[in-house]
Every structure is written in structure tokens, then in C-alpha cells.
Amino acid sequence: MGYDVDRFVGSINEGLLCCICRDVLEDPLQAPCEHAYCATCIHGWLVHEEICPEDRQPLTQDQLRPIFRYMRNDLNQLRLRCVNRDAGCEEQVSLENLSRHEAGCGYGKVHCPNAHCRVELERRGLESHLLVCEHRTRVCPLGCGLTVLNSEVDSHNCVAELRTELELLRSEMIGRSEDQKHEMKLRLDSQRTHMVHKISEMQQQMDELKRQVEHLQHDVRLLSALERKRGQDMERLELEKKELLEVLKALKEEHELAKANTCRITAL
């Protein structure tokens, strides 16, 4: 919805009126066909229709754009009366400054900021109300340091209130202590589970290393046995070599002797 036309001072250009609500544009958007609408109005329209409400041309949410700068400048320069005119405010401000004015207008309605106070009054009377509000709080004038309602100062009992405050603090500390214990227990359980898992992993790694060491020891023993056997075979082969050399030598001697005998026989 736009701004009520009756609030404005002077004439208003037709192009600055919403094509849907016919009030002055609020948060204006523009279609490709250059028709302008209040953001709330056109968004609500496009929920049910996908055409411009003015010339019936196709229109979607994605096609909406901010209005031209010159239209925005013209819109901002329009002057209108404060929304609190009926309450007595006679200010006339530009649309550009309207929000700032109304946020601080003395004739605007506000709620008392004190807790539990339901009074609604004009902003200009708030300061006076706060001085007498029965829900206004202040520091105890007797020196206990507690904050008390203005209406309860006379009946305020420092000792009883401090005792109550102490009990509340004790309950809060006990609650926090229990929460911390529970949190610590959860952390310890988590760490314990993690440590058990890590110990299990380390045990598996140690078992695997032990198996590898045993395999290596077995291989070393096999290699040692093979080395001893090779040494024994070498010794045996050396003995056989010596025996063969001796046999060969003996055969050569017998051959030489037989050859010599053959020569002597031939000579005879």
C-alpha cells in the first residue's frame, strides 16, 4: 500500500501514483512498460496474475526494476503531513525525510520501556512518565546494591532480598556445577573411547610388527642354514677335487710308465 494522497501538500504528478492502489508510491518498482507500483501491491498482484494491471502486457517478478532516478527525485521532494497530525503534530516534511521525522516525532505513540509497565503514551510525555512510573527501578537507597521497583522502595527488606539473591546465586552455581560435571563426564568418556580405540590400533600395529619380526627371524634362520650347507658343500667339493687331482696324477704316471714300457718293448 502507498502513502495516502490526502496527506500530501499541493498537487501530485499522476506518474507518481501506484497503478494498483492509486496512492503515492511506497517502495516503488517499475515494469518494462514503465508503469510503476508499490512493491507490496505489485508483488501481491503477481501472485495471482502475470500481466501488468494497467496495460495487460506479460509481466513477472524478475522483470521488475527500480523506478527512474528523476522519478525517485520527484517522489522524494513531495511534501506531506506527519502521520501524527490528528494528535497535534503540524510538521510538513519531504517524503525523503518522513521516516526520520516520524521515528522521533513527539506526538508518536510509544510504550513505557520499564518491564511490566503497559502504559502507552506520546513520546513527548515519556520523560515525565518515567519519573513517576511505578515500574521504574533504581538502586536501593539503603546500600544493599540491589535494584528495586520505585513502588517497592518502602517495603524493600535488604536482608531478606539479599538472602533470596544468595539462594538464587547458590542454585545457579549448583546448576552450573552440575552442567560442568556432566560436560566433563562427556568429555572424559569421549577421550576414554578415543584412547581405547587408539590403544587397540597400536596393539594391532604391534602384533603386525611382531609377525613381521618372526617372519624375518625365520628367513634369517633359513639363510643361516643354507649358508652352513653351502660351506659344507664347498668343503666336500674341495675334498673331491683333491681326490680327483690325485687320481688324475696317478693315471698320468701310469700312462707315462705304460708309454715307456711300450717304447722299450718296441726297441727290443
TrEMBL record:
GO terms for biological process: regulation of canonical NF-kappaB signal transduction. A zinc finger (TRAF-type) spans 101-144. It comes from the Eukaryota. Residues 101-144 form the TRAF-type domain. Residues 192-261 form a coiled coil. One of its GO terms (molecular function) is zinc ion binding. It holds the Pfam family zf-C3HC4_2. Residues 18-56 form the RING-type domain. Keywords: Coiled coil, Metal-binding, Zinc, Zinc-finger. Transmembrane segments: none annotated. This is Uncharacterized protein. The lineage of its organism: Eukaryota, Metazoa, Echinodermata, Eleutherozoa, Asterozoa.
